[in-house]
Structure formats: C-alpha cells, structure tokens
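CRAL-TRIO domain-containing protein, Piloderma croceum. Tokens?
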Amino acid sequence: MASTTKIITSPAPDTQIKPIHTYTDEQCELIGSLREYTDSLLLPSDDPYYPWEHRWVNRPDTIPRYMRAAKWKFDDAKKRIKGTLEWRRDFKPDLIPPDEVKIESETGKIILNGFDVDGRPILYMRPGHENTERSPRQVRHLVWWLERARDFMPPGQESLVIIVDYKTTTLRTNPSISVARKVLNILQQHYVETLGRALVVNLPYLLNFFYKGISPFLDPVTRDKMRFNPDLLELVPKEQLDADFGGEYGFEFDAESYWQQVVSHCGIAPDGTRIQKDDSGPASASPIEESMTLELPTENVTPDGSGTLVDAAIQETKLEPHIETPVHLSTVN
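Tokens:
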C-alpha cells in the first residue's frame, strides 16, 4: 500500500448526500420565528465581532439545527441559541489563530481526514498521542477542529463523525473526567445536531470507568450515536479509511505538511480570520459556503425573506472525490 501525506478533502465516488431534513409548514414558521428572535439578539453592526456572528447565524443549517435540538419547543430553542451566541462572543471559536493551537497538533492526537459513507468528515481522536499538559488551550484546540470539520462538510451535509482510538492510551494521557465534561458541554450545547456518529475503538478494560464517569453527562441523543468497536469498513469507504483501522488509505502523518494543508484548504489567515481577495471590508463568501446557499420554493420562504433558513430543498448531490495538495482559497467569509 502506497503511503501519502496528502489529505482527503471530499467524499468517495458516488457518495450520495441526500436531503437530510424536511419540514412541515408549522415547523417552517417556527424556524422563521426563531430567526427573527435571533436577529433581535445580534451585536450592533459596529461591533468588531458582528461580521462573524452574522456569518454564523446566516449559515443555512444554524437556525433549523437549534429548533430540531429543542424538539420544536420554541422557548427551549430561544434559550439554547441565546446561550450559544453568548458563548461564541466569549470564546470566539471562529477566530482562533492557528498558531495558538498548533503545538497541540504536533503528534496527530486529533486528525481531520476522510469522509464516511454519508459524506460526513471524519475527526480522528487519539488520546494516546497526548503531548501537552492539561490546559484551556487543549479545549480551544478541539474547538478549532470542530470549526474545521464544518469547513470540510460538503454541500448538504451538516454533521461529522468522530472516531476515538484508545490504542496506546494510558491513565496519564487520557483526558480527565472534568475536561471531558467541559468538551461534552460545548459539543452538546453549542454544536447541536453536529455529531453524526461517535465511534470508539480499542477501548481497554482499564478505561471503562472513564465512560461510566461521563455517562451521566451524555444526553440521550449523543448516547444513541455512540458505538463501541464497530466494523469501520461498514461505515467508511475503504479508500477513505486510515490503514490503521483496516482501510486502504495509507496516510502518513507529517505534522507540518498536514497542518499547512488544512489551514490552506480552509483559508485560515494567521490571525484566525479568513483569507480575502483584497483589504477592503470583511471577507466574502468562500466557494464552499457559496455552494451551501439553497434555492427554496417560494412557499417555504420565511416572512423576512430568509429562504436559506430551511434546508428542505437540498437536492441529492453526487460528489467527485479528490486528494489535494495545499491550495489557498481566495475568499472565505
């Protein structure tokens, strides 16, 4: 099997990204109402973080995800999205400078590479590769990767797969239950409906207590998406699955090459913003995000005209895969 340092940035041949969700008229109205409520909470337009907050709210899947997570209970959805807006203003997950967290990636303990059979980007986590002491930067590093996973999502896809590999993990390298709780809170509260699957492999008996310790903090939806020691070849195309897990993708991790490819593909500037065509004004939409803009039937357009809020009209999409070398995106919003 030939080895390569090149990353995979699109799904396997003939991957079908099917319409994920369809909504009733009543649900469309709730989505529109939640958007109106969210708009009322936005920062003033002259606030430095306003362009980034507005960008996040305007993603086609943001408002629908919060309504679904709240099981269509409007007051709960309002509470959830208000909490996330406050968290994002404080944490600024979309503006984390690459160099702030780069040291955390030197051993490949978190690797974003490849896609599952449904076109979800795969985030590999290897606790046994831990290389730093416990600190807030470790959490920011994980959040940086959650943001990059969203950058990798093909049009029509809005969730990711996490594969946690416990091979070589020890009690020293395994994250503490308190850190795991913090990460779970961020994932479950501020990246709602983003986890497609959580697959745990090579879990030693010694660490069973860890999952017993965090189990009370797993919401039922997250718990239902977890699988232990599954057959990964049933879930990931063999040409997309790392050879370490039985696949045919001979990825060879080179820290600097890997990091530069991801940063370049996602168009991340040194200060955490996005690469622009010029210096005039905020960055415009990237080719990735432009392709996510949805054309909706007029009857599904919300009262404020923000038809892209409802992703019911996503058409089944065939994606041609490729393994690409570093290429700068000229514009990313």
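Residues 277-333 have pLDDT under 50 and may be disordered.
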